[in-house]
Write a structure and sequence with these properties.
The structure holds 2 protein chains of 2 kinds.
Chain A (H helix, E strand, L loop, with lengths): L9 H10 L7 H4 L16 E3 L9 E8 L7 H8 L2 H9 L5 E8 L9 E3 L7 H8 L11 E2 L1 H10 L1 E3 H6 L3 E6 L3 E2 L2 E2 L1 H7 L8 E2 H11 E8 L8 H11 L3 E4 L5 H12 L5 H10 L5 H8 L9 E2 L12 E2 L2
Parallel strand pairs in A: 1-6, 2-3, 2-7, 5-8, 7-11, 11-12
Antiparallel strand pairs in A: 3-4, 9-10, 13-14
Helix pairs in contact in A: 4-11, 6-9, 11-12, 11-13, 12-13
Chain B lengths: L3 E5 L7 H11 L2 E6 L8 E4 L5 E4 L12 E4 L7 H13 L9 E4 L7 H13 L12 H10 L13 H19 L7 H14 L1 E3 L1 H10 L1 E5 L24 H9 L7 E7 L2 E4 L27 E4 L1 E2 H10 L5 E5 L10 E5 L13 H13 L2 E4 L5 H9 L3 E5 L7 E2 L1 H5 L8
Parallel strand pairs in B: 1-8, 1-9, 2-5, 2-8, 5-6, 6-7, 9-13, 12-14, 13-16
Antiparallel strand pairs in B: 3-4, 10-11, 14-15, 16-17
Classes of the chains: A alpha/beta, B alpha/beta.
């Protein structure tokens, strides 16, 4: 028998409950929800990152992560880390007026919630979207998830002033540990997003389309089921080149994303970024350094202006 | 659905918490269901990375992501202690424990008035203390039995006017009996209970029935069968049914009677915290317990040799088990012996539930009984299995899930390694 080590102080208890009225990041999922929250439903949705008087130079950053069973506890760790992302970007000044969007990727062949996409937000409202994400926990076991659907959504269902007004691509981070399916299936697009695609599209074509407007990175974290699996890394290297990055410490995910954006915005070079991290007391320096060593020398691609959306990818100069 | 019920076949402290944690680490568990006791439970779980939590009201599977806790109506709920426990869980990296909690609205509340009355009574017993934890759990049960329609219950936290009336009646009755109590005014208590009701999901009986159909559940017992209110050694017992009975009732209500595996937990050294019979007690045993020290309510933590006589009695009154979990094998050195019979007494015969005079007579007999100690077995699991007539399906040599082995680990792994 125990001895009652938890305080039963009545005044203290009221305070404790008041302090803890916030729901957990995955409260929607943990409360038993098994279908997409209306705020994250991709069907007929358009996600926009727009300039405002307060944020005249918006920089869109989308972070979508795999929430299927193969990722194990990774989604929950991401949930606990990602709310720091905006603060990190703002504090370090790596991006002008960052607007962050969170989303989640499942498996359209066997999951109930294959795609969830939040809205771009300039403040902590994005944390609410994190809290509405349903964690699948299932997964097909065939080492594939529906990343291609997420790419499709990002290519066809987002609009950004960064691109429309300034010809600058946004940042798209996909965090996962499996392959994409070989093609975007028209039937799945019709069912989940509502578009009539007529015919299936090869994933390579989808990647070309999305990278035209989004600087796209694939992060393969440690601790996930297939981490370190060459087949997965090779697959994404084949599609995204050095933008497919291994991440050996999940705790460093925000720093990695922030530095990648900082490098892309040419706000810093890698050494300066790592010094910033050190100075801020981050323990993630080595992980980030290793993950980004190959990206450090890359120059960000900038579209040539004037840009006309009808040009598709043709207006983009990749350096 | 592979539901499992975990019960301690001793006086508590055998390692239910670590067994429940192991089950939740090695299989997809939907909910851990607490079905007896209250905030006085203290189930210690230690993770490989050194994090530690003493689970009192939250299920011992809470470290494992997504595993819920349900407090069934047989639990005495203490929202004040619950808040402190949730805070500690946050500090060890589990910020969402309250989000994963459901509480049956019919459950009784343990209040500061129960607690103060509990302490006043125990102090008045002087040297004849029962070993109460001083948290008012027994007091709440007693009041609930005496005044079933007026006892404060969890659902009342949603209805401040009702709760105010019930708390005032409770306070008045107890002070009339015991004199002034060291407890805050009713008005000061209400905000804490209201905050609890806003924060925690209060549900009715149907919630559990559907959870039992949705996924695998683990019933986590509190205390031990030898402390059972009806079958324990009166008066050194707890106000709680510590056998499988409540869990079986809950299963039967869901139409699932008899479907859960019954697991009995034992430790190689039979221990007891608080006064009362411990026939094999041996002050010369060189043990200490990391998580159980001396406290003002129960005194020191007592160690004895493995008491197969008492454990066989527990097994019988609990109605048998499908398997045993044997913990603390790391303590099984040559000095730790086994007791298969007492001098002049081979077996403790279970009586009908609730015959407290008979139980008190048994207690008197046990307080005089002398153990016959046999040499330390070379193979503890085999010896325990033979002495109790049940298979040992899990053994443990340390506090973490990684230090367990046996068919139970393998059978329930379902492809998931302990995280």
């Amino acid at each position: 028998m125990g001895s009652g080590i938890w305080s039963t102080d009545v005044y203290d208890a009221a305070d404790r409950y008041r302090r803890r009225t916030g729901k957990s990041a995955f409260s929607y999922s943990d409360s038993g929800a098994r279908k997409v929250h209306s705020a994250l439903d991709p069907r007929d949705a358009l996600r926009e990152s727009r300039d405002s008087a307060e944020h005249p130079q918006s920089t869109p950053i989308a972070v979508l992560f795999d929430v299927t069973g193969s990722m194990g506890h990774v989604p929950r760790v991401l949930q606990s880390k990602l709310p720091q992302l905006l603060g990190l970007l703002l504090r370090q000044g790596y991006a002008k007026d960052p607007q962050v969007m969170f989303g989640a990727i499942g498996d359209a062949t066997c999951d109930r919630v294959p795609l969830q996409v939040g809205q771009f937000e300039s403040d902590n409202r994005m944390d609410d979207d994190l809290g509405r994400i349903v964690l699948e926990g299932g997964g097909g076991g065939q080492m594939m998830e529906s990343y291609e659907l997420a790419l499709y959504f990002m290519a066809r269902h987002t609009a950004t002033d960064s691109w429309d007004k300034r010809g600058r691509r946004g940042y798209l981070f996909i965090i996962g540990d499996e392959l994409a399916y070989p093609g975007v299936k028209a039937a799945e697009v019709a069912r989940l997003i509502g578009d009539d695609l007529r015919e299936d599209m090869p994933v390579r074509q989808m990647v070309d389309e999305v990278t035209a407007r989004w600087d796209t990175y694939y992060l393969l974290p440690a601790g996930s089921h297939y981490a370190g699996n060459r087949k997965v890394l090779d697959f994404w290297r084949g599609l995204l080149g050095q933008n497919a990055v291994e991440l050996d410490d999940l705790d460093a995910v925000c720093e990695t994303i922030a530095l990648t954006v900082g490098l892309g915005e040419q706000a810093i070079d890698l050494d300066a970024g790592l010094r910033d991290l050190d100075r801020a007391g981050s323990t993630a320096t080595r992980t980030v350094s290793k993950a980004l060593a190959r990206l450090g020398s890359e120059r960000r691609a900038v579209a040539t202006l004037p840009f006309s959306p009808a040009d598709g990818a043709s207006g983009v100069t990749r350096l | 659905m592979n539901h499992v019920m975990v019960v301690d076949l001793g006086y508590g402290d055998a390692g239910k918490g670590t067994v429940v944690d192991l089950l939740c680490a090695t299989r997809q568990v939907h909910t851990v269901i607490r079905f007896n006791g209250g905030a006085q439970a203290a189930h210690n779980v230690v993770l490989r990375d050194g994090r530690h939590h003493t689970f009192a009201q939250f299920g011992s599977g809470t470290f494992r992501p997504g595993v819920r806790t349900h407090l069934a109506r047989h639990v005495v709920v203490d929202p004040l202690a619950l808040a402190a426990e949730a805070d500690h869980l946050t500090s060890v990296g589990v910020p969402d424990a309250l989000d994963r909690l459901t509480v049956d609205g019919e459950a009784l509340l343990a209040t500061p008035y129960h607690r103060a009355a509990n302490r006043a009574r125990e102090i008045a017993r002087g040297a004849d203390r029962h070993g109460s934890c001083g948290l008012g759990v027994g007091e709440a049960v007693a009041y609930g039995l005496a005044h079933p329609d007026e006892a404060p219950r969890v659902v009342d936290c949603r209805r401040p006017a009702v709760l105010r009336r019930r708390l005032a009646a409770l306070r008045d009755r107890l002070t009339a009996e015991l004199g002034p109590l060291d407890a805050p005014p009713v008005e000061d208590c209400l905000p804490a209970y209201a905050a609890f009701a806003r924060r925690v999901a209060i549900v009715d009986r149907t919630w559990l029935a559907s959870a039992l159909r949705e996924g695998t559940c683990v019933f986590e017992g509190a205390q031990g069968v030898l402390l059972d209110e009806w079958h324990g050694f009166h008066p050194y017992t707890t106000w709680s049914t510590t056998t499988f009975a409540n869990a079986e009732t809950l299963l039967a209500e869901a139409g699932l009677a008899g479907t859960a595996q019954r697991l009995g937990v034992l430790r190689t050294t039979t221990t007891r915290h608080g006064p009362g019979p411990l026939v094999t007690e041996d002050a010369a045993l060189p043990f200490t317990d990391r998580h159980n020290g001396t406290n003002p309510w129960q005194g020191r933590f007592r160690f004895g040799h493995f008491d197969a006589v008492a454990h066989r009695y527990a097994l019988e009154v609990a109605g048998g088990v499908d398997g045993l979990a044997l913990t603390h094998l790391d303590l099984a050195g040559p000095e730790l012996r086994i007791c298969r019979r007492y001098e002049g007494l081979d077996r403790l015969v279970p009586g009908p539930a609730g015959d407290l005079d008979r139980q008190a007579t048994l207690t008197q007999r046990l307080l005089r009984a002398r153990p016959v100690l046999e040499e330390a077995p070379g193979d503890w699991p085999a010896a325990v299995s033979e002495a109790l007539g049940a298979p040992v399906v899990l053994t443990s040599r340390g506090p973490t899930a990684e230090e367990k082995e046996g068919p139970l680990v393998n059978a329930f792994c379902m492809g998931r390694a302990p995280a």
